[in-house]
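Course exercise 7: structure representation. Students receive a sequence record and must write out the corresponding structure in token form. The form below is the worked example handed out in class, using Probable queuosine precursor transporter (232 residues). Read each field label carefully; the graders check that inputs and outputs are placed in the correct fields and that the protein name is recorded exactly as given.

STUDENT ID: A-19
EXERCISE PROTEIN: Probable queuosine precursor transporter
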Amino acid sequence: MQYDTQLSSNKYSGWFIAITAGFITCLLTANIISIKMVDIFGLVMPVGTIIFPVSYIFGDVLTEVYGFRKARRVIWLGFACNILMVVAIWTAIHLPAAGFWGGQSAYEQILGFTPRLLLASFVAYLIGEFTNSYILAKMKIATKGKLLWTRTIGSTVIGEGLDSLVFIAIAFWGSVPLPILFSAMTTQWLVKSAYEILVTPVTYMVINFLKRVEGIDTYDTNTQFNPFHITE
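STUDENT ANSWER:
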């Protein structure tokens, strides 16, 4: 097994690239489809909730196998891809539509966004993902690599909780009654956390598989945890 020494290399395996691609795909997909609200067994939430928690699972895998340093790079890469997507959508909306095309209003309604929602999404993403990765890395050291389920679930519960709290507070504070606001925060948090718990066996299999085929099991004992320290 390799530890921090593997992280000094700038080479990335095919498996690492696949996990990174999955992480970013889940993030972007959730942001696009979340305009739709769904009612599942009386629980009202953005439909993006069905895919966004998977990004946290990928985040757990990245941190557990490859360490906080590489997870940090992926989190910022996801942030950059999200900004690129927003710029592309904004440009597409504002380009003049062909005269024969009658879908402009629907196009704007589905793909449009407000600055407040964008700010909420960006801030919540960074706080939630970095918190999730930091807690998992620290818990791994504290548990000496044992009790994997405690850190995958524990880090996600806190990270997803902060994500839901920050996003809903920034996006809807002052425009939605407080009881509904707190209910929405709690519902999203519980659903996302339950998602992580249910797929824990799959997370175990993926992590154990990657540790075996990659020959690494990274412990962040000498890591600089500053999220902005991306040159390390």
